[in-house]
Specification:
Length: 513
Amino acid sequence: FNPREVDLAVGVSRDSYASSGQRRRRWPVPLLALVAFVLVTRLPALLHPKAIDDEQVYAVVGIEMLHGGQPYLSAVERKPPLLFAVYDAIFRVAGAYNWPAVHLVMVLWTLATMGLLALIARRLFDPATGWWAAFLYALFLPWADYRNLAFNGELLMNLPVVAAFALGFAPARSRWRPELLLAGALVALAFLLKQPAGIAALPLGLYLLLPDYRAARGLSWIHSLAQGALLTLGYLGTFAVAALVLHHEGLLHQALYWSVLSQGSPYGLDNYARNLWKALPLFVVTTLPLLFGTGVSLVQAGRGQGPWPAHRAELTALLLLLAVSVVGVSVNGQFLFHYFIQLLPPLALLAAPAFAELWRGERRAWAWVGRGFVTGWLAVTAVAFLVADTIGLSRNRRPGRSAEYVRVHTGPTDRIFVWGQADAETGFYLDARRRPASRYIASYPLTGHIFSVPWSPTLDESSRIVPGAWDSLASDFARHPPRYIIDAEAVRDPVRYPIDRYPFLRDYLAAHK
């Protein structure tokens, strides 16, 4: 018994308790700062009185569901069913056409994803790295284009994917890890929000088989295989339950066709390269601080420096997640700006330790820049994004005059049909506050339109017309005839799909003048 040792132990305990108390008192400051940052940078969306970009299409489907309709049968869109269920739920709670509610949910969804990223980085490293992971995701989510503020499929799917990795990376109380059932289910749910998310199961499953993972946790091959089996069971089991639900609703065939089988890419190498060149340079330039921070972390890890060498299994898993996310961005060859949102969770987690190190004054890999330079770089980036988002959304705040005319000259129960192919054309239903007369809320199943390919008069898309689509259109018109048919294609120069080319529409208009 040594009184001095006891005094020292008590002193350390008191110091630790005091330090813990100080951390508890300090943690609301970065939390409130992050929430304030998200609210300010999403203010253009929160104040926007209309749907943004893809929200227009999802909202039309959600409103049909609100009125008792079904996705794919009442309104055709090529996304998985859970995405439409989210919009339906928002409208059931907040009312149809409630765009502030949609954008508030977008903010809350973003904050939840940030919270899980912070949790992952905090567990692996320290609280400061957690805050950086959350901040980097929030900052670069609306990169360069106001349409990235939309409550779109990529933003939706990121939350369950990040939650699955938070479970996978978490310290385990059991060698068998039954929580991996939930992790697998979360990745499947992410697929049911947006298809490319399903590929995230691969890096998470491989993570459980890595030698570094087994060594760090003292596991045998049997334990790793059992854990992988649980992850797979949760993944496939969720799809099985979803299939049963869709079959019960009479939607299984339609859901499989529109969200999976109709997704084949018709693009040649020239179109693929052109679409990539339109998007990739802008993404690199506008997210350069994030990419640079990721590079710093990886260079340090390769040299055995920084915090990553102590977490080799997690580093490998995140690099695999980044690699398969690149596949997800690239797979259909369109390279739309919002596709790149899928890359942000692994990039934020990979870059966060480097930014936290710089913030603490540890500049081993940042020797040529200082904290002030990086802070200014990030601040300029945030302001530039906010200005771009504000200007972009300000140009489209009011319904068009055609939509206002239709709204004034129709009744609430009247249906309309918009002939055209773009989010804005589908958004006409929302601006006019009138429901569609047909399930084809965009015209591509009727024309064979190929997305993200330059149109030319010699382009023959007739072979891509969905079999039976025109018969379905005739059936829809018989059930609820359109009060107006709006030819949005007629104002294009040149006109791509003139109504006179399609006998059913031409004859229908002639008979209903």
